[in-house]
Amino acid sequence: MKIKVFTLFPEMLRPMLSQSILGRAIKNGLLEVELYDIRAYTLDKHRRTDDYPFGGGAGMVMSAQPIVDAIEANTRGFSGRRVYLSPRGRRLDQRIVEELAQEEGLVLLCGHYEGVDQRALDAVIDEELSIGDYVLTGGELGALVVIDAVARLVPGVLGSDESPEDESFTTGLLEYPQYTRPAEFRGRAVPEVLLNGNHDHITAWRREQSLRLTLERRPELLETAPLTDADRAMLKRLRRAEALDIPGERLELRLADQFPRQWINAFVPEASRKAARKQCVSGRQHVGFLWQAFTLGLIDGLTGDEAEAAWRAQPPEEALLFLPDEGLLYRVPGALELPGHVVLTDPDMTRTFLRAADGRRFYAAVYLS
Ligand code: 4GS
């Protein structure tokens, strides 16, 4: 990929192009970036490259002559889209970046001041692109953004361990959270699913996190993201959780990861104890990914009915309500009549566990119908 940049300030770009991944790509010849100083082409005797706007108004306008001459003199026989960076352009996104990466080369024109004489754009520019709805002092940062985003799609620019595949927008979804060592930082653990080496679980957990984040922050992306049936089922559950409209404060899910394992207890009715114990062991697989922090156990000597009766007789002031399927955590009044009824457990583990916030160690298994 060969990129020619036309600018009044080539020195603004050089540092970015000499470092890190871009620096390496250029050194290895995978990427060629040539910087052209527009001022070198002005025919003005004072070497001016801008002038007052016809019709009046604030600021200066870049003159057509140096731009057109600079681009014409250096792009003969060069095939590649010619782009002017401007807030007026089509807004850059990953789809456009992928398009640009298919080109043999690119010409990037950086404006400065109030803009560029329209006749220069008409003469030598194919397309205007904007890197976002805000105003910069010059197009150089825009050009660097284009170069950077395009370069990482050029084969070989990213090392084999820096795959472009998984990132936000390549999948059409926001990126899942990442962790590295140490496994615990300031009392906060890395989600256990990432530590135990089961790659199917890890893939599924990451997908779920991507869906959750996208639904929360950029729901409009879900309309165009390629989704599987499993994704749609997951989204349905996530949306259902929102619709439950639990009274109480929604806590950050990260808190769920902090629950010490020994907090976790559950009660189940006598009849389903055996089933529950079995499910709990395998529960990690299907219910999953949220079981990382929730190992289900039984309270010695209490039947489910007794534990439920105890809860009802003396509800704590506050409780944490965790919806494992939906992956949501709430602080709710302990006496809350929960949606659905307290039936403790059900065969396919669509349950919620309630912990007394006063430290009494039991959880109610609640079936949300
Ligand atoms: C952008 C932008 C930009 C506009 C350049 C005012 C100086 C400035 N370029 N995406 N004149 N946003 N350019 O703000 O590409």
Give a structural overview:
This protein has 369 residues and is α/β, with parallel strands linked by helices. It folds into three domains: 2-151, Alpha/beta knot; 184-243, Trp Operon Repressor, Chain A (Orthogonal Bundle); 253-366, no CATH class. It has helices spanning 10-17, 20-27, 64-74, 94-101, 118-124, 140-151, 199-217, 229-244, 254-258, 273-286, 304-313, and strands at 2-7, 32-37, 50-51, 61-62, 81-91, 105-110, 127-130, 184-185, 188-189, 249-251, 318-323, 328-333, 351-356, 363-367. It has a five-stranded parallel sheet, with helices on both faces. Helix 7 packs across helix 8. Bound molecules: 4-amino-N-(piperidin-4-yl)-1,2,5-oxadiazole-3-carboxamide. 4-amino-N-(piperidin-4-yl)-1,2,5-oxadiazole-3-carboxamide is lined by residues 85-87, 111-112, 115, 130-132, 134-139, 142.
What portion of the residues fall into strands of 2 or more residues? 15-25%
* Unreliable stretches covering 5 or more consecutive residues: 253-304, 339-369
Distance between the termini: 57 Å
Overall average pLDDT: 76
CATH homologous superfamily label of the largest domain: SPOUT methyltransferase, trefoil knot domain
Task: Give the CATH topology of the largest domain.
Answer: Alpha/beta knot
Give the C-level CATH assignment of the largest domain. Answer: Alpha Beta
Helix/strand layout:
Elements: E1 2-7, H1 10-17, H2 20-27, E2 32-37, E3 50-51, E4 61-62, H3 64-74, E5 81-91, H4 94-101, E6 105-110, H5 118-124, E7 127-130, H6 140-151, E8 184-185, E9 188-189, H7 199-217, H8 229-244, E10 249-251, H9 254-258, H10 273-286, H11 304-313, E11 318-323, E12 328-333, E13 351-356, E14 363-367
Parallel strand pairs: 1-2, 1-6, 5-6, 5-7
Antiparallel strand pairs: 3-4, 8-9, 10-12, 11-12, 11-13, 13-14
Helix pairs in contact: 3-5, 4-6, 7-8
The chain binds 4-amino-N-(piperidin-4-yl)-1,2,5-oxadiazole-3-carboxamide.
4-amino-N-(piperidin-4-yl)-1,2,5-oxadiazole-3-carboxamide binds next to strand 5.
